[in-house]
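Why this split exists: single-chain examples teach little about how molecules sit against one another. For that reason, every record in the complexes split bundles all components of an assembly together and asks for one structure covering all of them. Below is a record exactly as it appears in the raw files.
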Amino acid sequence: RRQDVLTVTPWLAPIVWEGTFNSEILDSAYRPLNLTIGVTAFAIGKYTRFVGHFLESAEKHFMKGYRVNYYIFTDNPETIPDVQLQPGRRFVIVPIKKYPSWQEISMRRMEAINKHIAETSHREVDYLFCLDIDMVFYNAWGPETLGDMVAAIHPGYFNVPRSQFPYERRSSSAAYIPDGEGDFYYGGAVFGGLVKKVYEFTKTCHMTILMDKANGIMAAWQEESHLNRHFLSHKPSKVLSPEYLWDDRKPKPPEIHLIRFSTVDKNYKEVRD
Amino acid sequence: RRDVLVLTPWLAPIVWEGTFNRDILNAQYMQKNLVTGVVTFAVKKYWFFIEGFMSSANKYFLAGHQVNFYLFTDNPEQISHLQMAPENHLFVIAVQNHSQWQDISMSRMDIISRYIRSQFQYEVDYLYSIDIDVQLFEHIGVEIIDTLVGTISSWQYTARRESKSYETRTESQAAIPKGEGDFYYTASFYGGSVAEVYKLTRACFKGVMEDRENDIEARWHDESHLNKYLLYHKPTRLLSPEYYWDEEL
């Protein structure tokens, strides 16, 4: 039991922290359902270098004991390393085109995920997580994360007042959130849920991204701004604490007992080129 | 709320005053155009409670949302005219009475499951079974709406696991092995989606019938069976004892 942090949102969605759940009980409820969990991750251009470490760590920590399909979206299939997977786990390369700027690449993810769900993954998985590739799993990520629509709290903003959340503040953007509104600042590197819900979510985000494009504006944090706008009006049914989306460059505060998934230290300028 | 447990070990929220914002929940609920049903029984002398229950529930239960009240009674004539809110409907359904109150109590499970199958599944999305000998004093709103919902019994709230009133005789279908059990739930207020309530009432009644054939009756009748069911089919949401308080406490 955790009394030092908020564990339920005002709309009664659980906020998942170490100490709030019992893995055995959850496993005994979820394992018999024979679920397949999908993971999407984008490895475009130089980002393919992160695939090996991402997959190796996922094999150790992500949904152990469940069927998992990794969908690696890439413009460069030959550079994807061959990683040994546990039984019941598959790895699929999804070729996609590379856009000229890193911002465009980032924002087109919503469209690509949505298209892929419609064509393929809706038939193959029950739940789908959309994760950034330049990250590594350090500790267990299990069925405590499963829910209809799941978002994660951004590690940089879980302890700051709402006025400091970097929402898009220009009213001309479709991702606009006015002062005084907002529940949390969610990170764009982690979201997921039932495949049907992720389909609807990615479709809406992509639509709002296109609306902004037509109006000649790009949101402050690209698709993360749109994600935050969407989750304000359509609240997630489960929220993951920053244990599930950490930034290794930050010092670990007392509230974070366990780091499960975290960024890989990198030279942003170099890798985004 | 830091003084109470607000989340079960399987991450189901436990609803206490102070844990939720009803405006946010109402906004979400409105988007979905849902109908909720309430099943209640007034058999034999319990007709006395009808007016108190219906007038308070009409005012305080899911106020502003569409509610169908299904009132099962052996005495339909005793029901004086009840003024219902515009969103609410009252359906009076006649039933036979039984000799012992325990039988009435346990046949409720059977009646509910049969009516879900023949009628309620077409009329409501969520269904709650509530004892008639209660009055609502405060609003009970959409914070109760979820797939499978149990209410923590106020009598048992602080009891240690060993002293909870589970059925322990292994001959009964309601038996819970020693050392097991999450919470003690009251049979006076439970519910969920119409599909889940159907499964629950079917399973409980099956347990009741098997016990009857083996000439045994569970310690707390249908409530024992309910507790067994909810141990192995964890509720997705729990209501704190605020939602069903016994004045005698």
